[in-house]
Amino acid sequence: MALIVKKFGGSSVATPDKMRAIVQRVLAGKQPGDQIVIVVSAMGDTTDDLVALAKEITSKPYGREMDMLLSTGEQVSIALMAMAFREAGHKAISLTGQQAGITTSDAFNKGRILDIQAQRVIDELKDGNIVIIAGFQGITEHGDITTLGRGGSDTTAVAIAGAIHADACEIYTDVDGIYTSDPRVVTNAQKMGEITYGEMLEMAKLGAGVMQPRAVEMGSRFNVPIHVRSTFSDVQGTMIQEDYSMEIKQYLIRGVAEDKNVAKVTVLGVLNQPGHAYKIFSELADQNIDVDMIVQSVRVAKEGTTDITFTVSRSELPAVRDVFAKIRGEIGAEDILIDDKMAKVSVVGAGMAGHPGIAASMFGILGDNDINIEIISTSEISITCLIAEESVDKAVQKIHDHFFAESEA
Ligand code: ASP
Ligand code: MG
């Protein structure tokens, strides 16, 4: 007897046939007494299509109305899935985010789950239902529908699993687990049997697209083991959990990630006086712009000024431009330069702490391949280099070749 949350993404529920296939698989694997919650995304490219539809009406970000629109995608999936289970002879019920008791902050398009009152879910399970919950959505305390950011169904699934104390949360996807690097870029990337929350979170933040970072954070907070596995086969996927289950060898490097959604912004000739960096970054924060790598350097050629460089997602650039139009006079900046053809390559692994050679090896590989490093940043378990986008696939492959030459994941 187990209580399991299973999440199926958009491509897994893209057609009625695919939905029926999920129903067959779930029912075939269900032991008597098992209780099953299913979280689904919108069918196929529905969310993208809805975004495109809104763009035909406006280019403005009407956050509340956007969430009203986007949340409909998941609602279609849950209703059809519930019908598909009932057609196969099993009791099932669909629940929206609100009906499942999910309260979020009132940040439209990037709501954060604040609370889950899952009594309805528990009652429906007790009643013998398979409970099908709309991913990616919740409701504010004022009753407005919110969405959790793209890819947010993962977060819904893990949070629900935490709230009902599920034995496991299974994320079904079109890859069969987490790889040491993106297998579409690195031909010899290896599937990992397991990875820790900390390492997975770092990989996800640094660009590994398999899981939404907040889903991993939720898993860690509620200690829910997350099993990332294939929709199309029964092979064991990758377990994301607190620690490695076996006393296996210490991994130095767990993965090599890349992120192409990066732009570099340089503010030239900022007056070198107290309070100017604060001014820039507090204005950016007020606009909810997530700033990543930051470097400030004193300009030798021109006394009394500094250049401040940072990175953001490319989609934030219009907002960054607006901020600088507003504060430029105040901070005395000469100019801002924007380069939106940048990318990040990162190595991640909890084992690298106390191994100073890792950074040197990574820089050496980039140098040998004539790839210039613009900015370097590190955390306790990662090293990231900002490089030109055109070189990043090659960089990832070469770095992966080096660190995973004789080892296996
Ligand atoms: N349907 C939403 C999206 O495409 C949420 C998700 O798939 O997780 O981003
Ligand atoms: Mg989707």
From TrEMBL:
Enzyme class: transferase
Gene3D superfamilies membership: Acetylglutamate kinase-like, VC0802-like
Chain ranges of the ACT domain: 265-341, 347-409
Domain of life where this protein originates: Bacteria
Record-linked InterPro entries: AceGlu_kinase-like_sf (IPR036393), ACT-like_dom_sf (IPR045865), ACT_Aspartokinase (IPR054352), ACT_dom (IPR002912), AKii-LysC-BS (IPR041740), Asp/Glu/Uridylate_kinase (IPR001048), Asp_kin_monofn (IPR005260), Asp_kinase (IPR001341)
GO molecular function, one term: ATP binding
UniProt keyword annotations, A-Z: Amino-acid biosynthesis, ATP-binding, Diaminopimelate biosynthesis, Kinase, Lysine biosynthesis, Nucleotide-binding, Repeat, Transferase
Role: Catalyzes the phosphorylation of the beta-carboxyl group of aspartic acid with ATP to yield 4-phospho-L-aspartate, which is involved in the branched biosynthetic pathway leading to the biosynthesis of amino acids threonine, isoleucine and methionine.
GO BP, sorted A to Z: diaminopimelate biosynthetic process; homoserine biosynthetic process; lysine biosynthetic process via diaminopimelate; threonine biosynthetic process
List of residues binding substrate: T47, E74
Subunit (UniProt): Tetramer consisting of 2 isoforms Alpha (catalytic and regulation) and of a homodimer of 2 isoforms Beta (regulation).
Protein name as catalogued: Aspartokinase
Binding-site list for ATP: K7, F8, G9, G10, T173, D174, Y179, R184
EC number in record: 2.7.2.4
Family to which the UniProt record says this protein belongs: Belongs to the aspartokinase family.
Pathway: Amino-acid biosynthesis; L-methionine biosynthesis via de novo pathway; L-homoserine from L-aspartate: step 1/3; Amino-acid biosynthesis; L-threonine biosynthesis; L-threonine from L-aspartate: step 1/5; Amino-acid biosynthesis; L-lysine biosynthesis via DAP pathway; (S)-tetrahydrodipicolinate from L-aspartate: step 1/4
GO cellular component terms listed in the entry, alphabetical order: cytosol
Catalytic activity: L-aspartate + ATP = 4-phospho-L-aspartate + ADP
NCBIfam families: asp_kin_monofn, asp_kinases, PRK06635.1-2, PRK06635.1-4
